[in-house]
Protein: HAD family hydrolase
Amino acid sequence: MDWKKINHIAFDADDTLWSLEAQFWEIERRFLALLAPYGSADALAEKLVAVERGNHPVYGYGVKSFTLSMIETALACSGGRIPAEDVGRILDFGKTLLNAPVIPFADAEPLLAFLCRRCRLIVATKGDLLDQERKLKNSGLLGYFHHIEIMSEKKTADYRKLLKHLDASAQEFLMVGNSMSSDILPVLELGGSAIHIPAPVPLRYPDAPADIVSPRLLTLGSLAELFRLVSQKL
Structure:
């Protein structure tokens, strides 16, 4: 990783700058309890994941897609017999996620305050546009970023488009995120650099293996470790 060339640093948002996955796990737990009359927790959870994955190309990612997938799963597993009031509870689960407070990780703001004086900072995330914009605003971190990119997918072509918009080369670009498949591998494929910081809570979906070896990839345990590193390198 050539730190002398890096002048654009992008951050994933959810579970990189603040915690989100734990909230999804809690809502899933409550959803499975609600649907307990219609099947085992394991079978219901497997069905929910299958429905979510099938819906991603249609609804995209985020809370609204998750909520619609919970309703579809409930209808399928109950044979259409789930009471209207329980559908209302599922809608409330979604609203709970949408209205949850956004609390950045402890070292996020000091890190961004340090970096924004030395390079351009970017948010590169995916999900529902309105929800991601709301979280960024409520996080108090929005002012540190030069550019916000909310993608429907985070694949190699999407990062290539982002680099073109930024007028930056891959060698000038560093991506920081918690997902190997969304944040790390596409950037490495383009010739950029990446720092993988695994989320403190396991992802609900299987991720790509984290055993990739590259001179342009580092794995760290926290934003605090990243702060110590960039304090030495930049």
In short: DSSP finds nine helices and six strands in the chain.
